[in-house]
Design brief:
The chain is an alpha/beta fold and 494 residues long. The chain has two domains: 272 residues, Vaccinia Virus protein VP39 (Rossmann fold, 3-Layer(aba) Sandwich), CATH 3.40.50; 191 residues, DNA methylase specificity domains (Adenine-n6-DNA-methyltransferase TaqI, Chain A, domain 2). Helix content is 30%, strand content 22%. It is built from 15 helices and 20 strands. Helix 10 packs across helix 12. The longest helix is centred in the N-terminal third of the chain and has 17 residues. The radius of gyration is 26 Å and the shape is elongated. The protein starts with 9 loop residues before the first helix and ends with a helix. 42% of the residues are buried.
């Protein structure tokens, strides 16, 4: 079934949070459904041009399921696409008739979140929420403010979230019958991070995950829209008992390319003792290395007496205090561009960023006393060799009484002061090891390395970290040398 091409201006796409599903992705999503009942009540919220419902219909017409009736309910707020959506549904109707399936559809040109939140909250008298056997969804992706109409509507039914896409998923989950299935394509960002914890708890309490699919490229799913958000596809069933095992699949995202599948114990995807309910998504190639490195580690950052914080200097707020080059009245200001082979290279005369910040009463609250600090970049691209990049700030190399860490850095410290050198060197080796980087990629579905993520990581105990630190004699160690050092000491402490 061929869909008419839809061209929506980029500004309007961003306003609506609307990025339409390519036909190959829609077909793949439809293929993920398990056996369906004879009568399927289907929900497509945020339907766009109807590609997801069209793919679902094709799946039912071509499969051996005994589906005889499809009752489709579609929500689409964009009035400019409704005619195309209706045309697609009429094509679905014709296709189903040829397969001896009765197809009916209802298109609601309404706000799905507002309408369904009101129904679920009982605000619409004598209007009960509908129920569905299946849902296929590419929800809109857009942040929603704490006082926005969408946020208030969701809060009225006990859903607290900061993005439209998680609001859609939470609502759809409440409309599924027990055993009802949902297949959705969403950003991977809900899998970790503090903002999505309430959503993860709600999701995992009411939906049983059956499969997760990841793309090797951030551009794969929405290439035509130049979307760089890393996306996943999930298949889940309405229920309250997670499976013993979960299938993780991956592909390049190119049409016709091979799909690899690996089955993992569910406890390796969501760790039973993890209060954050992070959803780890391993790849087959990296899983063994990450598991070998992290298995058995139980020490928390707090029990080591350490804290990690985000750099305090937000440059645009202190613009008048920034200086391109250091002077007698300035102190060092460090950005990711000052990372150089495991240590800080400062000043960097050819950097586009400033190298210094005034040392006076205005910026002083945002500075830290000089000392040994371990720094990590907060942002990397998915295509970079490493997601987790750690670097040592050595006060013997950069002489200053105070130092500024810009907001794109995280820094490890002891109550606002520097670390003991040997411990810092051990942390440097551990965080730069391949196993930790691979482990981190399993639950970091975006290109950020948040302080919260590093705070919840399990670490070797202090004696093991210090033993590693004693062996770090230089910062030009190869990756193999770092990995061998870390592996040796982790095996010795088990």
């Amino acid at each position: 079934m061929k869909l008419a091409a839809i061209e929506t201006p980029r500004s309007r796409q961003e306003e609506l949070g609307q990025f339409l599903t390519a036909a190959p992705v829609a077909d793949f999503m439809a293929s993920m459904f398990g056996p369906l009942p004879r009568t399927v009540r289907l929900l497509d919220a945020g339907a766009g041009a109807g590609s997801l419902t069209s793919a679902f219909v094709s799946r039912c017409c071509e499969s051996r399921d005994d589906v005889r009736i499809i009752e489709a309910t579609l929500y689409e707020l964009d009035g400019e696409i409704l005619d195309t959506l209706a045309e697609t549904m009429r094509e679905c109707e014709q296709r189903c008739a040829e397969a001896n399936i009765r197809f009916t559809f209802t298109i609601h040109a309404a706000d799905f979140i507002q309408e369904m939140s009101a129904r679920l909250a009982g605000d619409l008298f004598d209007t009960y929420p509908p129920t569905f056997d299946a849902a296929i969804v590419n929800p809109p992706y857009r942040k929603i403010g704490i006082d926005s109409a969408e946020r208030r509507a969701l809060r009225s039914i006990g859903v607290e979230t900061s993005n439209l896409y998680t609001g859609f998923i939470a609502l759809i989950q409440r409309l599924l019958v027990p055993g009802g299935q949902m297949v959705g394509i969403t950003p991977r960002s809900f899998c970790n991070g503090p903002y999505f914890r309430p959503f993860r708890e709600d999701f995992l309490m009411h939906l049983e995950l059956r499969r997760l699919h990841v793309f090797e490229s951030r551009q794969a799913a929405f290439r035509n829209d130049s979307v760089l958000q890393e996306n996943i596809i999930f298949h889940a069933v309405k229920g309250w008992n997670q499976p013993a095992e979960l299938t993780i699949s991956s592909s390049s995202g190119e049409p016709g390319d091979a799909i690899t599948e690996t089955v993992f114990p569910f406890t390796e995807i969501v760790h039973p003792r993890d209060p954050e309910k992070f959803i780890h998504i391993p790849s087959a190639a990296s899983h063994a290395t990450a598991k070998e490195t992290m298995d058995g580690l139980r020490t928390s950052l707090a029990s080591l007496g350490l804290t990690i914080s985000t750099g305090r200097v937000v440059d645009f707020r202190l613009k008048d205090a920034l200086r391109k080059e250091p002077g007698r009245d300035t102190v060092p200001l460090l950005y990711p561009c000052h990372f150089n082979g495991g240590t800080v290279h400062w000043p960097k005369s050819d950097a586009r960023k400033p190298n210094a910040i005034l040392d006076n009463d205005q910026p002083r609250p945002w500075l830290v006393p000089s000392g040994v600090y371990l720094l990590t970049k907060r942002f990397t691209s998915k295509e970079e060799r490493r997601r987790l990049v750690a670097c040592l700030f050595d006060p013997d190399e950069v002489k200053a009484e105070w130092v500024g860490f810009e907001n794109h850095l995280n820094y490890f410290h002891v109550s606002g002061h520097g670390l003991e050198r040997t411990l810092a060197l051990g942390l440097f080796a551990f965080l730069n090891s391949t196993g930790v980087d691979q482990y981190f990629r399993r639950f970091s579905g975006h290109t950020q390395v948040n302080a919260t993520d590093l705070r919840t990581l399990a670490y070797p105990d202090r004696d093991t970290l210090e033993a590693m630190g004693h062996e770090v004699k230089s910062f030009d160690l190869s990756q193999d040398e770092i990995d061998q050092l870390v592996t040796k000491h982790l095996h010795a402490c088990r």
